[in-house]
Amino acid sequence: MRHLFILLFFGFSISISAQEKEIKQSISVFFDGLQTADTLKIQSVCHKEMKLQSIMEKNAVGTLSFETNGEFYKSIAGIPKNLKIEERILSYKIQIDGSMANVWTPYEFYIDGKLSHIGTNSFTLLLENNIWKIVHIIDTRRKK
After folding, report:
1. In this predicted model, which residue has the larger pLDDT, 61 or 97?
2. Cα–Cα distance measured from residue 41 to residue 133, given in angstroms and rounded to the nearest whole number
3. Domain 1-142 part of CATH 3.10.450.50
4. What is the mean pLDDT of the chain?
5. What is the mean pLDDT of residues 97-120?
6. SS3 call for 94
7. What pLDDT score was predicted for residue 16?
8. Sign of the CA dihedral running 133, 15, 97, 138
9. Cβ-based neighbours of 25, under 8 Å, separated by 6 or more
10. How far is CA 36 from the centre of its chain?
11. Fewest 10 Å CB contacts: which of 61, 99, 107, 120?
12. Domain ranges of the chain
């Protein structure tokens, strides 16, 4: 009985680890697409009903803004080719419950190598057809 419990525990741990790797991969594809202004790449890991929100922080006061999928993809496609953007993810905190996952990622955002702002992303993902799809993103943004 004890051996069965140990075997089940390790099997469960390996399954969670594999799911976390797949979730990180979806987020990585999202940011690769963001940095190269490749909206098709971004859409490959985003649910068609994805919701986007941002909390802009100034003087410890937050203001909530909303962006539609169409507005988001249009803004990404409109990034000038000579502008280099990079979002550096500092860490991942992943929680999984069945086909839903939440990922908390503090970040630093750079434009042409200069720090623009910092914040945290909160992603909600859905496991759909064996692909972790982003269904909601809310982030904070503030100057350092």
Report:
1. 97
2. 12
3. yes
4. 91
5. 98
6. strand
7. 59
8. negative
9. 132
10. 16
11. 61
12. 1-142
**Residue 76 CB partners (closer than 8 Å, separation 6+):** 33, 34, 37, 39, 42
Cα–Cα–Cα angle for 38, 65, 40, nearest 5°?
15
Q: How far, CA to CA in Å, does 132 sit from each of 25, 38, 41, 51, 122?
A: 9, 19, 14, 15, 15
Look-up: residue for tokens 């922080």? 57
Using the 8-state DSSP alphabet, how is residue 79 labeled?
A: S
Question: The whole model's pTM is what?
Answer: 0.85
Give the position of tokens 């098709």.
Answer: 40
Helices (H), the chain: 2-36, 39-43, 69-77
- Given a cut of 90, whether residue 61 has pLDDT beyond it is no
Spatial separation of the C-alpha atoms in residues 128 and 132, rounded to whole Å: 6
**Residue-level length of the chain:** 144
CB 101 within 8 A of CB 128: no
Task: Map residue 91 onto helix, strand or coil.
Answer: coil
